[in-house]
Amino acid sequence: MKGALLLTGLALALLLLAGRLAPAPAPDAARWATRPAVVVDGVTYASTGQRHGGIQADAVPDGAVTASVESWEWPAKDGESNFGAGYDYLRGAPGQLYVNFDGNWIVFEKWEEAESRAGG
Q1: How far is CA 112 from CA 14, 35, 118, in A?
Q2: Where in the sequence is the domain holding 56, given as residue range(s)?
Q3: How does pLDDT run across 78-87, given as a tens digit for each residue?
Q4: Does 69 fall in a domain?
Q5: Contact 95, 104 (CB under 8 A)
């Protein structure tokens, strides 16, 4: 009886120790690695994270983001983003789009150009 209790206790201790030593599950990197992106006129634009300070407060937007996908997905349809809907945008220099986040116009670049600048 005493031997069975000792063996059970030892087995339980090993299980607890094994659980502590096991590595924590890695977060799903692909799920969190996606940059803010939007599709306008069939072109995907990705955020550069840079603010464009030269746009007037009374600038008339060229359009607005009308639909959204999950933040870890890439948008696929015109007017769709992975950061939400209702954001105004302006067309900028060739290959650029400016998206208004609470009065801050953020520069988005055509995906191929943004990817090459990031080294990806």
Answers
A1: 52, 13, 10
A2: 29-117
A3: 999 999 999 9
A4: yes
A5: no
